[in-house]
Amino acid sequence: MNTKKHLLILGTASHVGKSAVVTGLCRILAAKHKVAPFKAQNMSLNSWITKDGKEIGIAQAIQAMAAGIEPTADMNPVLLKPKGDRVSQVILLGEPYADKSAGSYYDSIEETHDVLRGALQRLADEYELIVMEGAGGAAEINLYERDIVNIGTARITDAPIILVGDIERGGVFASLYGTIELLPEDVRKNVRGFIINKFRGDPAILESGLTELEERTGIPVLGVLPHFKLRIPSEDSVSIGDKSSDSSDVHDVDIAVIRLPRISNFTDFEPLERMAKVRYVDLDEDLGNPDAIIIPGTKNTTSDLHDLMESGMADKIRCFNGKIPILGICGGYQMLGRSILDSGIEGGEAATFEGLGLLDIETVFDAYEKRTVQVMKTVKKCGPIFDNIAGEDVKGYEIHMGMSSSKRPVFGDDGCADDSGLVIGTYLHGLFENQNVRHALVKYLAEKKGIEFEDEYIPEQDPYDELADVIRERLDMSRIYEMLGLGPDGF
């Protein structure tokens, strides 16, 4: 492959900022070239559905949007969605392939290599530049022979590599230096620069350390990126830990999201953070006195329903029935029903599970088939929350196994509401990306609380442009252009 067509961003660990760097570079490079993102293998429960109904990691969808292109399955050919008990659902080129343990998955790793080679070639045929992302830490020495996303991608493309380290974790110089020392020689020779991420303070205090790191490794530091709040969707569940520090007390409306053990697509609720205090509540925590409760999606509905019941959280939720809105998204919608009939698709054995009984629906899992589609639906009159937007359209996407029967749909033929209109379930992910839905819910909650509804503040600058500006300002872009065989101005 043409090495100057590819750039690989690796990290010293998970959550060091690889995805954000790729996103920003995609936005910068797309101003002058046709650019596509790529990640050979993603392990995440936050996913996205492409226009042709393929499921990929949400990070690559975000990166494609930053590049101004439609996300495709080739941008994330392998997606692993953990189900628990060391088993993950394997998604190949956007389609469910099988549930596999780590051992059985790695037994067929050569076949997976062929899948990513094909995806890379198709992208190379269509785009001028491909900005690639690794996963976790690059120096996982126990995985080198079967790693497709770091070492595998590096060897297939022979691309120049930038290594990212997170200074907020501590030990950033040791982690960068140690990673370089542990990389195989054929990969190490392609590392062309370091990025230090999430720094708080004056970068001048790092100068002696940066100089010594460069002297020891012969690799330049391309820049130091500041710690700042990204306004793009989170990549995976690791980011939930950041929510406690990000949660703002300036909002008076309080929404409790149940943090299920296998929570998926919690990015559904990030748009609400602009208007409300969104709390993620563990099953063993007190719910407090929320203005609304949301049960989110999950990778394993029956297992999380069992944990919800056993922990006592189901009873805590029921105590609010008829008092405040209780919403369920996807798996959370299924849990709100009377029962779930599983033929063995979810739990491995045929069983019937009692739901929370707050909605008049029954869900059946009878085939290893997943509905993955982008949709547009019309809001129906269903109660006090959304009646004022009845007749308006909403967009979203569905990612679910199982089918639910409903006599009182909420969005077109989707979802269900109870008689009061306060308990609502839907299969629509991305629901709160719709301003009409977001405002209808928060306005209702504010009025019930007796406070004034305040419209959300939407910054003037596009979040992708904001990220790109930070990267342009703090990184040596001329060196990055040089890695890609471009001139000093990026052409």
From TrEMBL:
This is Probable cobyric acid synthase. Residues 8-227 form the CobQ/CobB/MinD/ParA nucleotide binding domain. Belongs to the CobB/CobQ family. CobQ subfamily. Pathway: Cofactor biosynthesis; adenosylcobalamin biosynthesis. Residues 254-436 form the CobB/CobQ-like glutamine amidotransferase domain. The keyword Kinase does not apply. The keyword Transport does not apply. Pfam families: CbiA, GATase_3. Catalyzes amidations at positions B, D, E, and G on adenosylcobyrinic A,C-diamide. NH(2) groups are provided by glutamine, and one molecule of ATP is hydrogenolyzed for each amidation. The active site is at C330, H429. It comes from Methanococcoides cohabitans.
